């Protein structure tokens, strides 16, 4: 009853009520769209009963947004204002999701603006061509550049019987560099599994937050594992990526008891910034020289790889990440119908240099703007960092605006 009551008077208790109703609305809409929530670790009393009409959920979200707008006048602390802003941004995104359930068709730009409070910058085709030219200089040959990059991946392929060993070694390296900046509780832990289920969710890997500072990482076994992908996923899903994020959110819940922290949403500003922060964490965890040494001394031997120049590999990796705007530009055109599927596939293969354009196109068709949270979230996080290192990422994660 307290959760359903209007905020009177506004203040911290009002925010608790709004948060509880945000959780309830999310779980109710989740009954219509199971892609909205990764985990709910809060009390069962907030879980909905039989599924009700989406139209009623949409109306309740609109009413809650009105209440959130009024609640701002009664807040005094920066922390309370930041919390309300987080809830408001998530509720705006939830309203967009509810409208989609009611049949709304929206462009990628509309979804980015309404769900993620984001606008895409102009696409810089000349910067992309400069990046492709530099990669071409690093990987000379007569084949197309996409073929040369794919050949590099094949030469780094991890034998199936060594996949777990290589990923464990990669995760250990990520943990070692993360620990001085992001100290973890003694009982925090990560377990690793290989499965085909991640493919059905559309993700390359998946960090399943199970609570109590524990994370289960699942790696999509249907995608060939190469050494570069293993290290990237270990840092993104583990340290200092999603596992570290989950632990810090658990710690914040212990001190604040905010119900919204028990929910792991797969929508809105929360998704954009947590995925962006995990991408940036992967970038910053191991600078080029240290990454090259790790490949040569640990990961290549573990995978029986001996035909790859580690210094060339790390430079190609860094340059490929600069091609992420191509994915956004292709998705925008493809979903708007201004470029064909064949043209979209060609651009993803030859301009974005993605390993499997068909898989990515399927993800874009299914997730629409949510498929862009990696590159766009990465761009936003870099724009917010006080310094371009892990210490800067920690400062951002600890700030009141971390998920806004």
What does the model show?
- The chain is mainly alpha-helical and 404 residues long.
- The chain is 60% helix and 7% strand.
- The strands form two sheets. A three-stranded mixed beta sheet has the order 2-4-3. A two-stranded antiparallel sheet has the order 1-5.
- The model is unreliable at 1-5 (pLDDT under 50).
Quick overview of this protein structure:
The protein is 60% helix and 7% strand.
Please describe the structure with a list of short key phrases separated by commas or semicolons:
404 residues; single chain; mainly alpha; globular; 7% strand; disordered N terminus
Taking pLDDT < 50 over at least 5 consecutive residues as the criterion, the unreliable ranges are 1-5
The biggest beta sheet, please?
3 strands, mixed
Q: Could you tell me the mean pLDDT? A: 93
Quaternary assembly: single chain
Considering DSSP H and I runs of 4 or more, what fraction of the residues is helical?
55-70%
What's the order of the H and E elements? Answer: HEHHHHHHEHEEHHEHHHHHHHH
What is the β-strand count? 5
What is the approximate shape? globular
């Amino acid at each position: 009853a307290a959760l359903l009551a209007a905020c009177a008077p506004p203040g911290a208790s009002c925010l608790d009520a709004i948060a509880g109703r945000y959780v309830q609305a999310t779980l109710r809409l989740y009954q219509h769209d199971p892609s909205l929530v990764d985990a709910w670790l809060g009390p069962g009393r907030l879980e909905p009963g039989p599924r009700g009409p989406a139209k009623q959920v949409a109306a309740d979200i609109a009413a809650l947004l009105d209440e959130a707008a009024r609640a701002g006048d009664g807040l005094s602390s920066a922390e309370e204002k930041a919390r309300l802003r987080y809830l408001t941004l998530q509720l705006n995104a939830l309203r967009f999701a509810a409208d989609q359930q009611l049949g709304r068709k929206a462009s990628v730009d509309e979804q980015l603006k309404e769900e993620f409070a984001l606008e895409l910058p102009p696409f810089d085709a000349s910067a992309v061509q400069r990046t492709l030219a530099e990669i071409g200089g690093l990987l000379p040959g007569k084949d197309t550049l996409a073929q040369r990059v794919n050949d590099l991946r094949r030469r780094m392929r991890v034998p199936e019987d060594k996949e777990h060993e290589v990923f464990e070694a990669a995760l250990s390296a990520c943990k070692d560099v993360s620990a001085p900046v992001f100290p973890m509780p003694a009982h925090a832990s990560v377990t690793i599994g290989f499965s085909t289920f991640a493919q059905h969710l559309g993700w390359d890997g998946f960090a399943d937050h199970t609570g109590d500072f524990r994370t289960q990482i699942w790696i999509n076994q249907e995608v060939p594992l190469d050494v570069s992908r293993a290290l990237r996923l270990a840092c993104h899903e583990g340290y200092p990526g999603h596992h570290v994020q989950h632990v810090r959110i658990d710690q914040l819940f212990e001190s604040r008891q905010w119900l919204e922290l028990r929910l792991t949403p797969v929508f809105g500003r929360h998704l954009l910034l947590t995925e962006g922060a995990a991408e940036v964490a992967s970038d910053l965890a191991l600078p080029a020289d240290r990454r090259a040494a790790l490949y040569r001394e640990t990961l290549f031997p573990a995978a029986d790889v001996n035909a790859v120049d580690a210094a060339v590999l790390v430079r190609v990796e860094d340059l490929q990440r600069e091609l992420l705007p191509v994915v956004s530009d292709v998705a925008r055109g493809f979903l708007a119908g201004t470029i064909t599927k064949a043209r979209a596939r060609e651009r993803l293969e030859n301009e974005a240099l993605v390993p499997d354009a068909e898989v990515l196109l399927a993800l874009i068709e299914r997730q629409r703007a949510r498929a862009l949270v990696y590159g766009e979230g990465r761009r936003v996080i870099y724009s917010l960092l006080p310094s371009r290192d892990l210490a800067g990422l920690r400062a951002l994660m600890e700030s009141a605006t971390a998920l806004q």
